[in-house]
Design a protein that fits this description.
Elements lengths: L1 H7 L6 H32 L10 H32 L6 H24 L7 H6 L11 H25 L4 H17 L9 H36 L3 H22 L12 H12 L1 H18 L6 H24 L3 H7 L3 H31 L9 H33 L4 H7 L3 H29 L13 H10 L1
Helix pairs in contact: 2-3, 2-4, 2-17, 3-4, 3-6, 3-8, 3-14, 4-6, 6-7, 7-8, 8-9, 8-12, 8-14, 9-10, 9-11, 11-12, 12-14, 14-15, 15-16, 15-17
Bound molecules: protoporphyrin IX containing FE (2 copies) and fe (ii) ion.
Fe (ii) ion binds next to helix 8.
Length: 484
């Protein structure tokens, strides 16, 4: 630990990388808080009436899902601040502003969480919108905090674009990243909408919710994956950039009109049924591209890597992104099926699996890359990381399977058989398949929480320094000696 701390302040890191480490640390802390509130939220299902009037389900869930969005955003930003100076060979432009805004971000998040915990709700007026919460799922943060997030992201975009300008260099990866800043900030502006018509409000709200997670963030993780593969496998830039272009083309091609899968039942015209059905059915394609991308690289290098945990986590990212977002999303994306599955625990099953596969696994890969640099070893292949890996994956797969069972029971008993009446809802919520699914979700949630503890323990403790063996492929070897 002491050794890690000395290296933490090592002069070999760019300021931007140190900022990246701060963002990654904040992300891990918030990840823990998110799990805590997720677990708490799951208990209300088992013990209705728990904490009634003190801290209700709605607030536990709000902290859980807003915490999720923010820590993943911080994790993605941390990964990008880590790699940006390496990519362009210079310190990031405007790094001072980025450092200041990191603290603005942290303070804002802490104040919003305190408000959610202790103030919770307010009257339906502008004061509440500005200072307590906006009541729109995933973007409940009050207006002042939403302004803060917009500023943080604007500084982030400035850092990325101006570093290219100052370095007089734009790689293929940087083009993709810089262009992605426009929709990243653009669609976030919807967090400020005050539409009183629920249909039009939802219409635009989905632009933000769907576009962030299925388009702009997917591009960010694609960029990060390209860097990670070059870093830990020595994969050639030509290969990762070619795949990145293909993925981005497919993500934008399918993801933009795939938005239609949220327009089936909110009062939009009927043509969205076929547009949404068709384009969202194409959405798994880019995710499949990512899997091919990772497997192709594995074949090229016979699984030789200088950082095994990072490599395995990034490959897991590719696989589970495809399964959680692609397959679990596809299952309920056709209007004929969505009619029955809409808004059930089936949706929550997909939501958990997709976020975990697409982003959580990728961010953990970057945590291990930072860990390697900080602990100064050429080859990171200690055994202890298996615990976090095993428990987190077991916990998540268990949770999403339980939710899928519960959701299918809802779709069948409440919707298909019961005809969606209030009575059918009540009967279905006592159905043994549904109830046992919810108990199993909390059980596997606890396994997931244990996995988180093992992950943090592994990241905080020192590892033995290992030199690179002589029989590693030339590219991986070269990277290993560079890292020393
Ligand atoms: C990385 C891990 C996790 C991610 C990415 C995640 C993500 C999410 C998302 C996206 C939602 C909203 C789903 C929707 O309304 O359709 C949600 C809700 C929820 N999550 Fe998690 N979560 C995670 C971990 C956990 C854990 C460990 C538990 C504990 C058992 C948990 C329990 C819940 C509960 C109870 C809800 C409310 C669902 C509802 O409205 O009925 N989550 N989570
Ligand atoms: C990284 C990618 C993805 C993430 C993080 C993600 C996450 C989510 C979340 C959290 C929800 C619940 C939203 C809510 O009501 O609160 C959702 C809904 C949905 N997702 Fe995804 N998703 C992803 C990709 C996909 C893909 C590729 C498809 C289709 C092939 C898909 C199809 C759907 C559908 C149809 C719904 C609506 C479910 C309903 O009607 O209740 N998603 N997604
Ligand atoms: Fe979507």
């Amino acid at each position: 630990m002491a050794q890690d701390q000395t290296l933490f302040r090592s002069a070999t890191l760019y300021r931007s990388q140190r900022l990246g480490l701060k963002y990654l640390t904040a992300a891990v802390v918030l990840f823990g808080a998110m799990i805590l509130f997720g677990f708490l939220a799951s208990l209300y299902y088992l013990f209705p009436g728990m904490l009634y009037g003190v801290f209700d389900f709605s607030m536990a869930k709000t902290v859980h899902i807003d915490g999720l969005v923010i820590w993943i955003l911080m994790g993605l930003m941390g990964a990008i601040y880590w790699y940006l100076p390496k990519e362009l060979g210079r310190e990031v432009a405007g790094i001072r502003a980025a450092e200041i805004f990191f603290w603005v971000f942290c303070i804002a998040v802490a104040l919003v969480i305190l408000t959610f915990l202790f103030v919770q709700t307010g009257k339906a007026d502008f004061f509440t919108l500005w200072f307590i919460q906006q009541g729109r799922k995933y973007v409940e943060a009050p207006i002042w905090a939403a302004i803060g997030i917009t500023l943080v992201m604007s500084v982030f975009a400035y850092n990325i674009i101006m570093t290219c300008v100052k370095a007089r260099k734009v790689t293929g990866i940087m083009w993709v990243l810089a262009l992605d800043m426009v929709p990243l900030i653009g669609v976030y502006l919807d967090a400020f909408s005050h539409d009183r018509n629920m249909s039009t409000d939802l219409y635009w709200w989905w632009w933000l919710v769907h576009m962030w997670v299925e388009s702009t963030w997917e591009v960010l993780i694609g960029v990060i994956m390209a860097w990670v593969l070059m870093d830990v496998m020595g994969t050639s830039r030509k290969i990762v950039e070619t795949w990145l272009y293909i993925e981005v083309m497919l993500v934008l091609g399918a993801g933009i009109l795939g938005l239609g899968h949220h327009y089936f039942w909110i009062g939009t015209p009927e043509y969205w049924l076929s547009i949404g059905g068709f384009f969202s059915a194409l959405e798994p394609l880019p995710l499949l591209g990512m899997v091919v991308h990772a497997i192709y690289d594995a074949g090229e290098h016979r699984l030789k890597t200088r950082n095994r945990p990072a490599y395995i986590w990034i490959t897991t990212e590719a696989m589970l992104n495809f399964i959680g977002a692609g397959i679990f999303g596809f299952m309920m994306t056709l209007p004929q099926i969505n009619l029955f599955s809409h808004g059930t625990q089936w949706t929550a099953s997909h939501g958990h699996f997709a976020f975990y596969g697409a982003y959580v696994c990728g961010i953990i890969a970057v945590l291990y890359i930072a860990k390697q640099k900080v602990s100064g070893t050429q080859l990171l292949d200690h055994k202890r990381w298996y615990w976090g890996y095993g428990l987190l994956n077991l916990g998540m797969v268990g949770m999403v399977t339980s939710l899928l069972l519960a959701g299918m029971a809802q779709a069948f008993f409440e919707r298909a058989m019961g005809g969606s009446t209030l009575m059918a809802y009540t009967v279905a919520s006592e159905n043994p398949w549904y109830v046992s699914g919810l108990w199993a979700r909390s059980g596997f949630g606890a396994v997931f929480a244990l996995g988180y503890i093992m992950l943090v323990y592994d990241l905080l403790t020192a590892v033995k320094k290992v030199p690179m063996p002589a029989d590693y492929p030339v590219e991986v070897h070269r990277l290993g000696t560079e890292a020393a």
